[in-house]
């Protein structure tokens, strides 16, 4: 079994780590795009072409399923990607964990990039699942970039700024950018007692379900390959600075202790949310 993950950078690591933990015998192809990143500032049509190009390469390499662990890429490219690959091969996208946070009935914040925080996409998700006034958008300027470059000082400054913008009454935080789970320990420390909601574990579980696979964390590990803007290469040094990245680079199984906590409850599928709109052109 071969599973491809497509993202511009390190935001794929939490989902890749969960897949590696649940089914270490599935070969992972990590298709990153350092030449084109960050995708969030690109036009929607450009993102679609970049994702489709990566997916075609993944299929040529033997992928049985394609995962898009990126909110921006999922919003822009999931429909054309599924039109091209399914039903022969399942395609699994990513949605911020707003639904399970809203199901708590408590006030929560949504940490995300400035662009996503201001997007109709996030507003529609909140309107669909949360009660009026239950959710607060918390833009986190620079946090995704700081995580991507593994800059400790910049990460700390961005996390502290996000915590300062977070209302005092929230009991949960949705990690609305797939980079943020890589520093979930720092976010949790900055917001004591606040529960973090992340969709990486749910996306990994959905991928296995689409493939008809049960978790088998004791299976013999298969390989992990890295493709950087079309060329095979090593996992970037910044990725290896995070525990989950180091575990993936080592090629063995991934222990649960290096993974972000999974979200309880079913993931939100894009089939059930028809109001998604591109994040570009705001």
Automatic annotation (TrEMBL):
Chain spans, region Disordered: 260-282
Keyword annotations: Isomerase
InterPro entries the record matches: Asp/Glu/hydantoin_racemase, Asp/Glu_race, Asp/Glu_racemase_AS_1, Asp/Glu_racemase_AS_2
Pfam families: Asp_Glu_race
PROSITE patterns in the cross-refs: ASP_GLU_RACEMASE_1 (PS00923), ASP_GLU_RACEMASE_2 (PS00924)
Name of the featured protein: Aspartate/glutamate racemase family protein
Organism (species): Actinomycetospora termitidis
């Amino acid at each position: 079994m071969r599973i491809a993950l497509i993202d511009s950078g390190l935001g794929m690591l939490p989902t890749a780590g969960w897949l590696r933990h649940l089914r270490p015998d599935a070969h992972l192809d990590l298709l990153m795009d350092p030449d084109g990143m960050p995708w969030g500032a690109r036009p929607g049509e450009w993102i679609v072409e970049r994702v489709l190009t990566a997916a075609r390469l993944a299929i040529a390499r033997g992928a049985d399923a394609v995962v898009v662990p990126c909110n921006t890429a999922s919003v822009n490219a999931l429909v054309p990607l599924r039109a091209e690959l399914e039903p022969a091969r399942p395609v699994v996208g990513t949605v911020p964990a707003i639904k399970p946070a809203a199901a708590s009935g408590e006030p929560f914040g949504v940490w995300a990039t400035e662009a996503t925080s201001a997007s109709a996409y996030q507003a529609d998700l909140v309107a669909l699942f949360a009660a009026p006034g239950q959710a607060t958008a918390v833009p986190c300027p620079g946090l995704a970039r700081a995580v991507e470059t593994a800059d400790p000082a910049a990460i700390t400054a961005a996390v502290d700024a996000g915590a300062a913008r977070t209302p005092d009454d929230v009991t949960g935080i949705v990690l609305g950018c797939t980079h943020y789970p890589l520093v979930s320990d720092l976010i949790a420390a900055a917001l004591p007692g606040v529960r973090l909601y992340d969709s990486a574990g749910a996306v990994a579980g959905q991928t296995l379900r689409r493939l008809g696979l049960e978790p088998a964390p004791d299976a013999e590990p298969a390989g992990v390959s890295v493709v950087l803007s079309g060329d095979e290469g090593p996992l970037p040094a910044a990725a290896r600075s995070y525990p989950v990245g180091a575990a993936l680079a080592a090629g063995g199984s991934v222990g649960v202790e290096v993974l972000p906590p999974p979200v309880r409850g079913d993931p939100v599928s894009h089939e059930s949310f028809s109001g998604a709109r591109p994040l570009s052109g705001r």
